[in-house]
Design brief:
binds ligand LLP; 422 residues; globular; nine-stranded mixed beta sheet; eight-stranded parallel beta barrel; 30% helix
Length: 422
């Protein structure tokens, strides 16, 4: 069970909403920092342990700075994410570039800035050599175990997934890399997303430890770091239970002793690329009820839409909803909670039991601190909304302003530019 708390009292949230307008995402800075530090401490037995925070989960420079202070690096999947991580002051050697279907310019940027490149495909070895002149001294490969593992709905079944090098390719990848001057080798995988079953993560560690052994036996190459990717889940539903970093870490440590230390393959650094379990539970989307409509079903229409949080519409994902000020009222009404897009799947919840809702009520949608604002878009010319951060001293900072109409049209050319093909 997980208590669904709010970051501020009902009165404070109401005051804030009245002051700033709605909707907005708000993050609990202290909660994020303490959570990040808890992870670092839990895995501190692994010398040099690092979590490269998945920038895609919450790409706001203020959050990246905060996580850097807690000892995190950054995991980037595109050129702009690389630039943002660098701008947040994260040292290049603490930036992991885990991309797929990668553009030449992105390899070049990652190479030039000195980030760790994690290759998603065997053909990318040649791409990097062609674009950068050589391979970097440190190189990682993303492994796809195929039918050895099952995957899950968000990330896909490994056999069907577009990511990573296969078992039959992985040994060749390391051999070729070595022949081309790579000195330090890393191994990465990402086989689950939003996984709450600890066994699954432990099995991923076992799989990589075993592959480290196989690579050593077949090539004489010592892997120096394994990256278990992201994918640790969070308790979106009150009845879910979070994964304990401490417990997970102690189980991986046991495996490490048995499969790495005993085989004299240590030291082998451990890393993750977790985004969701770091910031997810520390974000809320605050929105106001515009309408309560009674049709064939009862609808609550919010001033937020799936352009602010698309997870429910995209994955059918559950996000808990609290009606602010009615926390203790009986949930004796059934509503579909919708946004205002011209899309009938623009729903935050379907058939959700909630207290009776009136126009003007303030709603908190929980666990939006990862893959929330980040997945926003502009369909129906919806302007993207602001983000706020509650700092350690209680001060509330605006860390992203709302878009304006001028932002929205900034890239449209009112005077079209002619494309000259001569
Ligand atoms: N590293 C790689 C290579 C990834 O592909 C991902 C997420 C992560 C790290 C971070 O995963 P996390 O720890 O945040 O689960 N938009 C989806 C999740 C997409 C997952 C894609 N990759 C969602 O809203 O659930």
């Amino acid at each position: 069970m997980t208590e669904k708390r709010l970051p501020l009292s009902s009165e404070e949230l109401t005051k804030l909403a009245n002051r700033t307008g709605t909707p907005f995402h708000i993050y609990d800075g202290k909660g994020i920092r303490e959570n990040a530090e808890r992870m670092m401490k839990a895995f501190s037995w692994s010398k040099g342990f690092i979590n490269y925070f998945a920038v895609k989960a919450l790409p706001n420079i203020n959050i990246l700075r905060l996580l850097k202070e807690a000892g995190f690096g950054a995991d980037c999947s595109s050129g702009p994410e690389l630039r943002l991580a660098a701008e947040a002051g994260i040292a290049p050697e603490r930036i992991m570039f885990s991309s797929n279907d990668t553009a030449d310019e992105e390899f070049k940027l990652a190479f030039d800035m000195g980030a760790i490149i994690n290759l998603d495909d065997i053909t990318h070895i040649d791409d990097v050599i062609r674009v950068c002149g050589r391979l970097p001294e440190t190189l990682s490969f993303r492994y796809n175990p195929g039918k050895e593992r099952t995957g899950n709905a968000i990330i896909g079944n490994p056999v069907e997934a577009k990511y990573g090098v296969t078992h039959s390719q992985v040994i060749d990848c390391y051999r070729i890399a070595k022949e081309n001057g790579v000195k330090h080798f890393m191994l990465h995988t990402m086989v689950a997303s939003n996984e709450l079953n600890e066994d699954y993560i432990v099995e991923t560690a076992r799989m990589l430890f075993s592959l480290v052994n196989e690579i050593w036996e077949k090539t004489g190459i010592r892997i120096e770091q394994i990256d278990l990717g992201g994918g640790i889940g969070i308790p979106y539903r009150p009845e879910d239970t979070a994964i304990s970093f401490e417990h997970l870490s102690s189980r991986i440590r046991e495996l490490y002793a048995e499969m790495i230390e005993r085989k004299e393959l240590s030291p082998l650094r451990l890393s993750f690329e977790c985004g969701r379990c770091i910031t997810g539970p520390y974000g809320w989307l605050i929105s106001k009820v515009r309408h309560v409509a009674h049709k064939y079903k009862d609808y609550v229409g919010l001033d937020a839409s799936m352009a602010d949080l698309m997870r429910p519409a995209l994955y059918g994902a559950y996000h808990h909803i609290t009606v602010i000020g009615k926390e203790n009222a009986e949930k004796d009404h059934i509503y579909d909670v919708t946004g205002s897009l011209c899309e009938n799947n623009d729903k935050f919840a379907i058939d959700r039991a909630l207290p009776e809702i009136e126009k003007g009520d303030l709603i908190a949608i929980h666990d939006t601190g990862a893959h929330g604002h980040a997945m926003g878009f502009n369909y129906n010319a919806k302007l993207r909304h602001a983000e706020y951060l509650i700092k350690e001293n209680g001060q509330i900072d605006c860390i992203r302003r709302s878009e304006t109409y001028e932002d929205y049209i900034r890239t449209q050319l009112f005077q079209p530019v002619h494309v000259d093909l001569t």
